[in-house]
Each structure stands twice: as C-alpha cells, then as structure tokens.
Amino acid sequence: MIIAIDGPAASGKSTTARLVAKGLDFTYLDTGAMYRAVTFAVIEQAVNLNDKTQLHTLLTGIELELSTRAEQTEIVLNGNDVSEKIRSVKVTGMVSAVSAEPAVRKAMVALQRRIGAKQNCVIEGRDIGTVVFPDAEFKFYIVADYATRAARRQKDLEKQSEHRSLKDLIEDLKIRDIKDSTRTHSPLRQAADAIIIDTSNLTIKEQVTLIVDQVKRRHNKVKK
To answer: Residue 74: its pLDDT value, please?
Structure first.
C-alpha cells in the first residue's frame, strides 16, 4: 500500500509522514531528503547543471541509502552520512533548481518506485500523488500559512546554528513555491483526488491522528 503525502516546503509533511508511517508500521520514504542529497552532491562536485554529461556522470555514480533512526531520516551519500549537511541554507537555496532537472527526477522517481513496489510505504514530496504514484491508495495534500511554515523552517535552521529572520524565510518560501509550482517537469500541485489538510493550527499529534484514522477507517471498510 502507498500513502502519498504532498505539499509545499515547510508545510509539515515530512514530520507528519514520518509519524504516520510509525503509527501504521509502514516504511517512511523521505523523497525531499533524496533530492537534497543529490543537490549536496552537485554542490560538492561543482557540477554545472547545464552540462548534461557532468550531471549524467554524477547520477550514474551516486549511491543513496536511507534509514530512519530515532524518528530522524539518516542519509548516506556515497558512504558518507550527510543527514545534517543536506539541511544547510546553501542546499535549501539550490534544491529547487536541481530537482527541476529531468535527469535528476527520472533517476529519483525510478528509485522511489523500486522501493515502493517492495513494501507498504508512506511517501512524501511534491509530485508523489500526481507523478510518482498516481495510483496510490491514499493521497493527502498538506498546506500551512507562510508564517507557520517560516517558523518551522527557522526552528530547523537554528538546530544547525544558522539564524534567519522570519521575514527573509517567508520570502524564500514564496520564491520556492513559485519555482516548484511552475517548473516544467513534475510541478508541485495537488492531485485531484487528494485530501487537503491545513496544518497551520493543528498540532503534530492532531494531523497525524487525522491521517491515520482515515487510512484505518477506509482500509477496514475495504476488508469488510
């Protein structure tokens, strides 16, 4: 079974997806972390996104391993733990451009589908319910207002000793939304059959319970 959770940056979908997976005893697949890892590799190797040969070489040689420990996603890139490094401001500022590259999306989607075909998964991203798993049994679209999203992003950055004002972060998020929703390949958009959940005024527990209850209720009806 696939549970797709999509939504814009810092809307709360990653935390929600992780805890929903835990509540249902499903595998949690953090696609955002996957794209951040590729972005980190692009930066580290000084790959020119306009040079398709360079990009192809990077993608064919990349090795990604994901695991969840203590409710946190751990990312090992080519044998190195980059779990903290992929959350930097530099990676955040470039991840939309890297994610928009067709070759990058093709490689990541193929990997996501391989993982999803083998086990029950909760998968979050921006195009899971529309492109990666359009036939997912459950689709949710997570949203939140800009002030709430900026506060969440600020909290994450402060854990890495990076300080940004809420005003700057709101502007960053607005730019990110425009980039993600207008890119040519796999743009951010809500699937027609997705359930919208506004997390602006919900606690983590409330939003997780809302999704878990819906999945269990509908799944039990199908079994009957």
So the answer is: 86
**Residue bearing tokens 């209850």:** 213
Query: If we measure between CA atoms, which residue out of 14, 10, 52 comes closest to residue 140?
Result: 14
d(CA 89, CA 93): 6
Q: Which residues contact 110 (CB under 8 A, 6 or more apart)?
A: none
Question: 36, 125 in Cβ contact below 8 A?
Answer: no
The pLDDT value recorded for residue 70 is 54
Q: What is the pLDDT of residue 167?
A: 97
Per-residue pLDDT of 32-73, as tens digits, reads 889 999 999 999 999 999 999 999 999 999 998 887 765 677
Beta strands in the chain (DSSP E): 2-6, 27-30, 64-69, 72-77, 80-81, 121-125, 138-143, 195-198
Q: Bridge partners of 207?
A: none
Name the token pair of 200.
């602006």
CA separation for the pair 14, 129 (Å, rounded): 15
Percent of the chain with pLDDT over 70: 96
Tokens representing residue 194 in the block: 């997705």
Question: Rounded to the nearest 5°, which phi and psi values hold at 163?
Answer: -115, 125
Domains defined along the chain, listed by start? 2-37+88-216 (3.40.50.300)
* DSSP-derived secondary structure letter, 194: P
Sheet holding 64-69, edge to edge: 64-69, 72-77, 80-81
The predicted-structure confidence for 136-186, as pLDDT tens digits, reads as follows 999 999 999 999 999 999 998 898 888 999 999 999 999 999 989 998 888
